[in-house]
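May I ask for a single protein's sequence together with how it folds?
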Amino acid sequence: MEAIINTNKGSMKVSLYTEDAPNTVANFVKLAKEGYYNGLKWHRVIPNFVIQGGCPNTKEGETGMPGTGGPGYKIDCELSGGNQYHDRGVLSMAHAGRNTGGSQFFVCHSRDNTSHLDGNHTCFGKVTEGVDIVDDIRQGDSIDSIEIID
């Protein structure tokens, strides 16, 4: 299964880790198909580390603090599958502590500063085309839509 993350800077094609993180992928796919991510902003951009988005508080007109919102439920981390390695282009579930993920996710710039995330955050996909877009994203840029390719 694949996803296309369309941003104001271009599109990234992602291969989803359906076997390694099935529940995390299912959650991401559900939210994407519902249009949950459409119009949200990349609220956290740290050079040579990650770009993070998926917070509903970044939608136009919302008043909550960016980076603190979610879908209204939490999902468990899936850390025992394969591909749990935070390398360039890897999508991983953001959380505020183990088993508190929901909608926020991040994409890694490189492996330089991400090894401490291994075994703590669920990797659930990797950018296979358009990985250079990760470098172009700035805080406040938009996630225009996420398409799922079954």
